[in-house]
Amino acid sequence: MSENLYEVLQAHFPQDLNSPCLLLPGGGVVSYRMLESESARYASLLVSLGVKPGDRVAAQVRKSPSALFLYLGCLRAGGVYLPLNDAYQTRELQYFLGDATPAVFVCRPQVRAAMEKSAPEAGGPHILDLDDQGGGTLADAAAKQPDSFETVPRQGDHLAALLYTSGTTGRSKGAMLSHHNLAANAQTLHRYWGFRPGDTLLHMLPIYHVHGLFVAVHCILLNGGPMFFEPRFDAKRALELLPRSTVFMGVPTYYVRLLAESGFTRETCANMRLFVSGSAPLLDETFELFRTRSGHTILERYGMTEGGMFTSNPYDGERRAGTVGFPLPGLSARVVDDQGRPAAPGEAGHIQVKGENVFRGYWQMPEKTQEEFTDDGFFKTGDLGKWDDDRYLCIVGRSKDLIITGGLNVYPKEIEEIIDSMPGVVESAVIGTPHADFGEAVTAVVVRLENEDGSDLTEARVIQAVKDTLANFKVPKRVHFVHELPRNSMGKVQKNVLRQQYSS
Ligand code: AMP
After folding, report:
1. Which region among 4-13, 309-318, 420-429 has the lowest average model confidence (pLDDT)?
2. Which of 203, 293, 376, 433 has the most C-beta neighbours closer than 10 Å?
3. CB of 300 closer than 6 A to ligand 1?
4. For the whole model, what pTM was predicted?
């Protein structure tokens, strides 16, 4: 039997295919019937361009219904979808295209000429364009295709998607995700988060990333329900749509921005059932403020490109601030020390995971793949974490962000928590910078409140606050004040940027 992810999702489409799937900003609606016929056209087009099962289809486009049809069409044609962040520049694109050798590359019209110029004479991808409104040569060609298509059968372990990791150190790697990886995670989340008839998702995330493309889209398609499909996050627009939605998924920055809106109240959220946060740590303060203002407790979960979601706070039961909850059903997670021995509760160590959704390895990097898996099949996430006394998992940071000063390990999170709790501090990031004696020096980068509350916050006071609570080797040698921390589009603080900036 075919295990094509599209067919897994399709089995849950509503009986009445005229039911809405995408609710668009101008009031337009894409029904499930249209989702079927449009994805059929895109699948036919890809096949007519020579895409064979297993061929990659790369896309660097803005979020639009057509971009979603392209993804689903690619699944139906048996292709491997490769979505790319639209921030990537020509040089970066050349690397991805050279590495993944897609049969088709869909880009925005503005970059088409440059890409055509740099594509190899022969054997390069077909290049088509899709503009931000969903028009262009891709949509024109798809419109001429038949509106039905027999989905190409795929086995569970066949590849469905290739997602490049954000690659903050070294070259970005292509994570290979199979039809079964994606289907298993989608079904687990759909159940675990209690999706039910009548749910409407407010979708404001980008769709080149696991969060927006897989977690959000798959959950709602498995529910056969509608989603507001917005081009981007906009807090004011969210205030208009939340009263008509039941589920929202966002990165922590979205929650901070919602709280900055005076119009964001309990009434705004009266119809809401669930707020999910992830992709970056949610500050305890945001968690608490959100609870007070909205009456809702944000559900924080943890995962990554290499397998979707790994852990989640419970849907029923206590959602605990500063934690990412429990391993999802079907997933084993463990925290181990440098020698691979299980860490005791409260002791920080490396997070490793194993389960149906964990990816199949890095594209054309068998050695790297082998390095990242243990002998007993656990994937080394590169994240550091610890269990609390009730076995909630807490993320302590990335192992690459661990600071080693004078041979001693320092977990940035421990220091950040102390600085963040000082009056006048908005947030902080603690990094290691090169130091002649210690190897690395603990360095804090702090965002102060803009008004007077933050004015007496000095380097000396920050240093003193840490000194009062933690061992001397953890005390920052320097404190820098900034207006904001550099973040990527998924809300993650870019510590590599800070390290570079403060290394001299
Ligand atoms: P990405 O592959 O871009 O989705 O990034 C995955 C990384 O984001 C993980 O390895 C974590 O370091 C981080 N991450 C995801 N969710 C959370 C969370 N809830 N709290 C802290 N870090 C998170």
Report:
1. 420-429
2. 203
3. yes
4. 0.90
